[in-house]
Design brief:
Length: about 325
């Protein structure tokens, strides 16, 4: 048996060992970075997180096509990420530029972007693989591009409903103007117009029709008054009507309610009955004392929160609040 008499480790050798360990860590990290395909690395760098998931209901999945995970509120989405809703699933995607997309059940969407070679501009691109969504897109120099099947849309400062079905594609423009292309034609749709069950070779200018129904909102009291710091309770009435009249239309279904004000409580879900009617209560508190931006009015915006309602326009109602 041999015994080895090793010299005691000095401070100098300890320092040397730590430097070698650190050097190997740096080398390993560099090798790992270099092992990443250049296209993926550049793509991740040039397209940071630009969308986020929110207002999830039911089950959804999100992420890269081959690595999708359970969707959660606050999950960030990057270039070519997908969002897929299940049969009971719904979700809202907020894009960095302020645009908003509401995905209905059984829907799959790819979010992405396109940059110019000199990176002077970027254009958001969406691909609807299946299902249906509602979207509001803000005004930008470069319109959002949306494709689904053989259809391609250019959208800027407009709200739409877009559905891809076996019977064809439905496009409803709720406000603004949208440019629509298919294999054989082009058309410019304005607010209140739609294309119904369009095929890839249809001559679209002959297929344009009017969106026949509308979700109508009313509030009571219609001129609410803030009294000190007390909360006001508003009664909201919703009714589907034939557009241009008050004739009720029997269309039951769920409603998603939005508002451009922070100090209020609105129901998580509202459902129209078989008469196409619903009532809901909204609690509104005065603005925060340090708030200098509130101008005294709140706009409520209601959309049909389900596929199959491309024939119903959104409902909006602007209410002015007074102070005693």
């Amino acid at each position: 048996n041999h015994s080895w008499n090793l010299p005691a480790e000095t401070d100098q050798t300890k320092t040397s060992r730590k430097m070698v360990t650190r050097r190997w860590l740096i080398v390993s990290l560099m090798l790992f970075i270099l092992s990443i395909p250049l296209s993926e690395f550049c793509e991740a760098k040039s397209f940071p997180d630009f969308a986020v998931l929110s207002q999830i209901q039911g089950k959804i999945k999100a992420g890269p096509a081959k690595k999708m995970v359970e969707g959660t509120n606050g999950l960030l989405l990057r270039h070519r990420h997908r969002v897929k809703t299940e049969k009971d699933g719904k979700a809202t995607v907020f894009i960095k530029d302020g645009s908003e997309i509401r995905l209905f059940a059984d829907t799959e969407l790819i979010v992405g972007a396109k940059k110019s070679r000199n990176s002077r501009w970027m254009r958001y691109r969406l691909v609807l693989l299946s299902g249906s969504f509602w979207g509001h897109f803000v005004r930008e120099k470069n319109p959002v591009e949306i494709s689904g099947g053989s259809m391609r849309l250019q959208v800027s400062d407009a709200s739409i409903r877009f559905s891809k079905k076996k019977t064809g594609t439905d496009i409803s423009v709720l406000n603004g103007t949208v440019r629509v292309f298919n294999k054989s034609s082009f058309v410019k749709l304005h607010g209140g117009q739609r294309l119904y069950q369009i095929q890839k070779n249809d001559f679209m200018p002959q297929k344009v029709s009017i969106i026949p129904n509308q979700l109508k909102l009313s509030l009571e009291p219609s001129e609410p008054v803030f009294q000190g710091d007390k909360t006001i309770e508003l009664n909201l009435n919703l009714q589907v009507v034939r557009y241009g009249s008050d004739r009720a239309v029997e269309r039951p279904g769920p409603v998603h309610l939005r508002a451009n004000y922070y100090n209020l409580e609105i129901p998580d879900s509202i459902r129209l009955n078989t008469d196409g009617n619903a009532k809901a209560k909204i609690k509104v508190a005065p603005p925060n004392s340090e708030d200098r931006t509130f101008e005294g009015s709140v706009t409520f915006h209601a959309i049909m929160d389900q596929k199959g309602f491309d024939d119903v326009r959104d409902g909006t109602f602007k209410v002015k609040f007074r102070n005693l």
